[in-house]
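User: Can you fold this complex?
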Amino acid sequence: MQRDLFHQELPDFKKAIIIGASSGMGRELARILTRNNYRVGITGRREHLLKELYNENPAQYIYRAFDIRDLSKTAKNLNELIKELGGLDLFIMSSGIGYINLELDSEPEFQTIDTNVTAFTDVITFAYRYFLENKKGHIVGITSIAALRGNKSAPAYNASKAYQVNYLEGLRQKSVSLKIPIYITDVRPGFVATQMAKGENLFWVASPEKAAKQIYRAIRRKKRKVYITKRWRIYAWLIQLFPAFMYEKI
Ligand SMILES: NC(=O)c1ccc[n+]([C@@H]2O[C@H](COP(=O)([O-])OP(=O)(O)OC[C@H]3O[C@@H](n4cnc5c(N)ncnc54)[C@H](OP(=O)(O)O)[C@@H]3O)[C@@H](O)[C@H]2O)c1
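Assistant: Here's the predicted assembly.
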């Protein structure tokens, strides 16, 4: 068959959006996806960082700078990104914040809830409804090992991550009961060397590159949940075994 000289064939990219791709695991995941035949819509508030990432591969990135806490703008921004991408196969929610809050000040607690609970719910439900309409899709939430128990130094952070884990499980159950292939992957990192890794006595700290590689493998396998890095599975098992009266004394 003769090729149409006037029509340049565009590679058949898969399409993804990453919320929180301006730094950390989100940025590394974006890089991996572009190397694996994805066109990626990248978001975050720090536009200069999104622009830097975009410049690495303008053919495969589009970017939008916005704050997910501004609930009135999120749907518009995401609809525009999906339109520009020409659809959506994969939605990754990596945005999150957390504070060590020994004084139990209200401000950091409520900021954490605004981002990790309210805005999280807003973007995740947007993605789920989109995939429901299109009868397929894959949602990935970067939650945390912190979801598994409470924490005296950052109570809102751990509680917000428990909310995320539970929310994602609810959506997974919904997909199964509706018999619609919308896959939900819950990614639970331990410590990863990003600006989010706060506090002393950090251990088993992975680079964001290594973390992203393992996350991508879990995405390809459509895993329900994954600990990042793998050895955090052991910690997860142990921390859940701890009886409350012992855990309280740590
Ligand atoms: N690093 C760790 O040890 C660790 C461990 C367990 C779980 N996690 C989770 O992993 C996820 C990714 O964090 P990371 O470690 O890669 O740290 P990071 O480099 O700080 O990435 C966080 C991302 O969230 C975005 N973000 C924060 N608030 C936002 C807002 N209001 N609107 C839009 N985007 C916002 C940031 O972008 P802008 O600042 O540009 O908006 C940034 O891209 C988080 O959910 C975190 O809770 C991290």
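The beta strands are 14-19, 38-44, 61-65, 90-93, 137-142, 182-189, 225-228. Confidence is low (pLDDT under 50) at residues 1-9.
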